[in-house]
Amino acid sequence: MKLPFPVSSLRRVGTMAVLAGGLAGGLATGSVAASPTPWAWAWKLDVHDVSAPVGSATTMIATVQFVDGCRVLEAYNNRAMQMSSIDDGVAFDHKTIPAEIKDGALVFEIPLHATKPGTHKINAVLRVGYIEGGDTMKMVNIPLIANVTGTN
After folding, report:
1. What residues make up the domain containing 139?
2. CATH number of the domain bearing residue 108
3. What is the pLDDT of residue 33?
C-alpha cells in the first residue's frame, strides 16, 4: 500500500508517533482519513540546531505545540530523556529534562556542550502526554533529532 506522505517525513514526526497517531488503523482498513488541520498529527515539534565553542555550555530548545482540540496533560511527567550523541561529541548535563508549559506548549530546555569540534548528530525521546477532544488522554514518544556544532 502506498503511504499518503513521503517516507522521509517519518524521520521528523517519528515512526512511533505515526503508529500511535492512528495511522495503523487506517492502513489496516486501506484508507487514511484526511486531517481537519494543516498539521498531520495532534502535535508539532520545533527544534533548531545549536553551535557553541567546545566545552562551553549551551541550551537546545525544543517546543511541542498542539492543534486546536488538544492540550497538554499537565499532570503527566512530560520530559526529554535517552539523550545521546552518535559519536560522543556532545555531553548532556542531565539524563532527564522536565518540560515547562508556556502558552499551551511544552518547552524543553536541554543543557549540553560539545566535547569536540565539528557537527554531531544527537537524539532524544520526548515523552509527552496530551488530552484530545476533552476526554481522551494520550501519551506519545516524539523523537528529537538535531545537530550540535562544536567550534574552536
Report:
1. 42-151
2. 2.60.40.10
3. 37
Q: Which residues contact 134 (CB under 8 A, 6 or more apart)?
A: 69
Q: Is residue 9 part of a domain?
A: no
Q: What is the CA radius of gyration of the chain?
A: 17
Cα→Cα distances 124→3, 15, 69, 99, Å = 26, 14, 27, 13
Over residues 8-40, the pLDDT tens digits come to 343 344 433 433 343 333 333 233 334 444 556
In this structure, is residue 130 part of a structural domain?
yes
Q: Which long-range contacts (CB under 8 A, 24 or more apart) does 37-44 make?
A: 37/67, 37/68, 39/67, 40/5, 40/13, 41/13, 41/17, 41/67, 42/66, 42/67, 42/70, 42/130, 42/132, 42/138, 43/17, 43/67, 43/70, 43/128, 43/130, 43/140, 43/142
What is the count of structural domains for the chain?
1
Which phi and psi angles does 47 have, rounded to 5°? -145, 145
Q: Beta strand pairing status for 58-66 and 105-114? A: antiparallel
